[in-house]
User: Fold this.
Amino acid sequence: MRYTIVMTGASRGIGRAAAQALSRRAPDAHLLVVVRDASGRGPAGWLGEVEGQVSQGTADLGSRSGVRAAVAEITDRLDQGSLPPLRAFVGNAGVQYTDAQTVTPEGLEATFAVNVLANHLFVRLLWDRFSAPSRIVLTAGDTHFGDLRHNLGMVPGPAWRSPRVLARPGAFAPSGTATAGRTAYATSKLAVIHLVHEYARRLPAGVEAVAYNPGFVPATGLARDAGRAARVAVRYVLPALTLTPLATGPRTAGRRLADIVLGAVRAPSGSYVDRDRAAPSSPESYDAHREAELWAVLEEFCTY
Assistant:
């Protein structure tokens, strides 16, 4: 039976490798890749030209109106029958800035807007369009642990605040520093796990939500806004760590993401998949009060 997978963050790195794996391994799936830039040949050019199997939508994930427009196009196609039933959403897009004061056109802190709110808006707008069995997969990360073992000393741990504070610039002081930017990133990945836990409580039967941790994956483009020295290290030095257990290459991480989307990894709804198996996330990530508050605040942002 034909079905649709909607995916963000497929233009490079882990997402690109995952999209390529999905296009090869799921011949019954139509992969709809949501990209920011519609120029060039689009995803079919780098996924391999497969007639009827790949298409693209466009959205600035930092804009709620942009996400709504993208989802409206998707739902129109579902209603018209030009897309088969929706069976998966993969929220892989993510950003990390060199500060915590970069804002979206709507005045929200950009890390939170893209890494958390955009995922939630996609899921909520598609909520009643998923055909069971379906799976929602959001990319999280080691950074939410906040310790040397998981972060290799490169990223500070999360610093949780009220979601209303996290959504605005200046949540982490001094907000103009790279440390604040990395803290915002780690905190957004903790929020993703909180969100997946809340989805597991609320999603209808037959629709699952899973958080995926690819581990440390150098050379994915995540540090493209960092300083020159950091960019050189990420591009030319840190990839050598993929020869050790400390890091994972994009191709392997992408294959594992595809495994989760296709249900090849045993992971009940609400699970945290650490690389290739379900595992506990950090003790801090299990907090029903935070999760309910995050849901409530995101729902408010989704209404305007």
